What does this fold into?
Amino acid sequence: MARTGVTYEDVQRAIDELLTGGDAPSVQRIREVLGTGSFTTISDHLRTWRQQREENRDVPPPRGMPAALQELAEGLWRQAQESANETLRHYREEADRRVDEAQESVAEARRQAEDARQREAALAEHLAGTEQRLEALSAQLATSQAQVEALQATENRLATRLAEAESLAQRYRDEAGRVAEEHRQALQALDEEHHAKLTREEQRHESAETRLMTLLDQTRQERLVQEKAAAGREEQLEKRLARRESEWQEACGRLAEEEKRHRESEGARREAEVLAETRQHEQALLQARIDEQKRHLEEQSQRVKGLEEQLYRCLWEGPAAAENTENTEEEKEEPEA
It folds into this structure.
């Protein structure tokens, strides 16, 4: 068997029971009294009951009673009506004031939320720019590191070439010393041979002075030729040694230039590292400010929700509270009648 819904009469009986107990009728309280029914149906019946009560508010008490009682009832009715109207006006003014305050608070909260969103957008844009600059600096740092590595490799190559040049120059000096020693030994051998020949010739040919003089001249000529040849070889060796020393000096100059560029690159790399650390610190500060703005937005959102709830209560519970006060005053007046 299908179950019937809550009727208007059920809701009216529940309202009467609540008013008798001194409670203001509401959808939740009516449903608690009935023990069943949907909130939509109960809300519709409650709205109908309030409309009917508002329409019957100005209906005077019924005729057919004694004149004194009729006059007393009419006076009490007017007093109750005036009191109810005054109370209702007061509650309406209070409700309107609260609604205005709530609307102003909501507008202010919305303005603050919009300002916070704009600040967040500006911070986000600034953070994006900072991240781009940080990426550019990171790329520059990577380039500088690559240049430093290339300079180090060049420095290693130049050091190797310098060592080779020094080794070659040492070999040339050793060779020049060896040649000079050979030249000295050759001259000494020639002198010894000359003296030996001269001694032998003097011993064997004491009477052949002319032949001895000829032999002496030949020996001198040979000595001159050998000395010229040795001098030529020595001059060539000195020229080769001078060229090697010039090359070694040029290599030293290039090495000094490379070391200077290396020092400059090292300074640029250190500056880039310091700038990168500064950018990272700025990014951390920006992230902290963004988090603070987000927390502020959440607080503003909670305040807006609270204001909306207060506005809802003022709009829906204000008339109910006014009717509750009116019913209470009527119940107080009825025993006197």
User: Anything to note?
Assistant: The chain has a mean pLDDT of 79. The helical segments are 8-20, 27-34, 39-55, 67-204, 209-336.
